[in-house]
Amino acid sequence: MSVVWIKNGRVIDPANQRDEIGDVYAVDGKIVESLSSQQKQQAETFDAQGLTVSPGFIDLHCHLREPGDRHKETIASGSRAAAKGGFTTVLCMSNTKPPADSVGAIRQIVDLIDRDSIINVLPTGCLTMNREGKALAPIGSLKQAGAVAISDGGHCVQNNEIMRRGVEYASMFDLVVLDHCEDANQTDGCVMNEGLWALRLGLRGMPSAAEDIMVSRNVILSSHYGARIHLQHISSAYAVDVIRRAKQRGVKITAEATPHHISLTEASLKDYNTSFKVVPPLRTEADRQALIEGLMDGTIDCIATAHAPHTEIEKDKEFDYAPFGMNGLETALSVCLDTLVRSKLVDLSTLIGYLTHRAAAVLNLDCGTLSPGTSADVTIFDPEESWQVTPDTLASLSHNSPWLNLTLRGKVKATYYAGKRVYPFAD
Amino acid sequence: MSTEPEWNRKDLVGIEDLSREELEMIYAKAEELKPTLKRSQKKQPILRGYTVVNLFMEPSTRTRLAFEIAATRLSADVITVSGNASSLVKGESLRDTAMNIQALNADIIIMRHSAAGSARYLSRCIDIPVINAGDGAHEHPTQALLDTFTLREKLGKDLRGVKVTILGDILFSRVARSNIWALRKLGAEVTLAGPSTLVPKQFEHFGVTVIHDLREALRDADAVMLLRIQHERQSSTHFPSLGEYTSMFGLNEKRANWLKPGAIIMHPGPINRGVELDSVLADSKRSVILEQVTNGIAVRMAVLYLCAHYAAKHRLA
Predict the structure, then answer these.
(1) Residue B263 has pLDDT above 80, yes or no
(2) Which of B147, B149, B148 is nearest to B32 (CA)?
(3) Do B94 and A271 lie within an 8 Å CB cutoff?
(4) Residues 166-205 of A with CB under 8 A from B
(5) Which of A170, A426, B102, B143 is found 20 to 30 A from B275 (Cα to Cα)?
(6) Do strands A205-206 and A192-193 pair parallel, antiparallel, or not at all (unpaired)?
């Protein structure tokens, strides 16, 4: 019998409206209400005085790159980065090499997870073969092999007929389709947001209309066919408004926003720093504000990192030639604390909700709370402690963070997954 | 006691970074050097012993030649490397290429590149001066310098209140961007004209006026700068066809009559004769196009001199 006793922390469990100084207990990997005196004697204890104790964070959107791009990240390194960032459940995207469009590919990812992951990594299967948007992938078989959601990971199906059949088919298996909303015709050759900064820098701009049109398309498909579509990394104010109105009409659509889109704008690109090159692109201050409002009124369901590791060599290029994407698992908490909590827009409990049970609800995952009987996934952090983002402090294999070399506030002190301490790392 | 203003830049990456005083320093040096172009003995011993590398990743005739001639006039050794003959086609990174050029004891790199921001990137990779000969749609600073130098010769050194219309493909144009910054810093009034898909209204945030009516755009102009329609850069969606462009925005003899009598016509080249500019006008009295080309040597000599002088003073090579 393994027993864990986390003592005297500020326990915040938003799903259960709990916010108090207290203890959290786990026996054999599950949360329990209390410990017997005998269990207390044999418990592994953690003194959380002065720290915040919350359900383990959930990330519905990260790229762990394995198989195929092990130089950027692996299941092992990515799961460590997640644990260090306080995440105990992450959804890895299907854009691996080969893509996760076959039973064999999903089985390989499941085997890698079983072998190498220190947290709960859940695989995503492709919506279309080779993520090309032309022919549907074997969605039912992918689910049987272990996929918990369906997505073309970084590609948006452009053909509306294929998308319609895909979401309709996936809904038969209760699978949510996660879509990267981008009208590719409007973004071909583009590297940043369309607007003043693109004009100034001479870089090709992606209009927010490219996102807004696909968000609207997905709202329409979800509405007509009752299919569950989750809109990934929403970045535009207009899209937030489209989602808000759809939800008011009862459309079963969900959405996420990333730490970088709620904290940064296109002005960050002024020096052509490729660490800020991401898709959808960083947009305007008005867009950033609208995303935060969307989170606060429930239009946007949760925060997801869109963790997209790339090596320094890949990013150290002319801006046009560098790949899109930012490292995000380990900086998410600090950035969100700054952007949302220290700015007094939301309280700490609300932020934890964005990172836990609200994300779980999107995929109906049985985690994200400290309810007795659930997996003992617990994150313990100091909201005030500072740390410097450096290649040495990041567990990820890649260091393409827009916050590299900056000091951030808010540090994870320990992460428990299924009652086992996975951070600080055992080795 | 007045002290001579001092050039404090290793690189020339863009006009946006420069102050008005820095622009004036370049014009003053170019004015001083221009008469030497007419001498039978044209060489000045100013950069004797220097090695200047022209790294041209995109095709160019005028700019490359003008830089070569400018550096040669200053007695520097000039080596031109074009993109398709360099190791970049073998997959070498720009950083590695540049560091190797520096290791070969080059003193200055002049670069033309298709990616916006690449000149700034290069300037951070290496210690020796980098002169931007055009980076994507971002900037082409020496073109704006020679354009404004020519305007000062033709319309007077004080360009405050002078009205300049830039006509054509502004969206994809580094020449337009550099000229907007230069002309605004010198106090000129800038109008951008052309189809709405190539001249978005948002440019007005940079202190210029956007007009889609050609007659109105030409009426008050003291100078009109034409830009080449860069059909190789844009996707097919920005305007219907070259023929449609010419019929709506091409400058021909009839439309030139909408200009004021003394207004001049400029073009950075290469001209698509009969597309954005009628052939007769290109060779007319209004045209200062070939004078622009000649002035391109003088301003590039000035820029090479100033950056090399800065580097020598700070022992950067």
Answers:
(1) yes
(2) B149
(3) no
(4) 188-189, 195-196, 199-204
(5) B143
(6) parallel
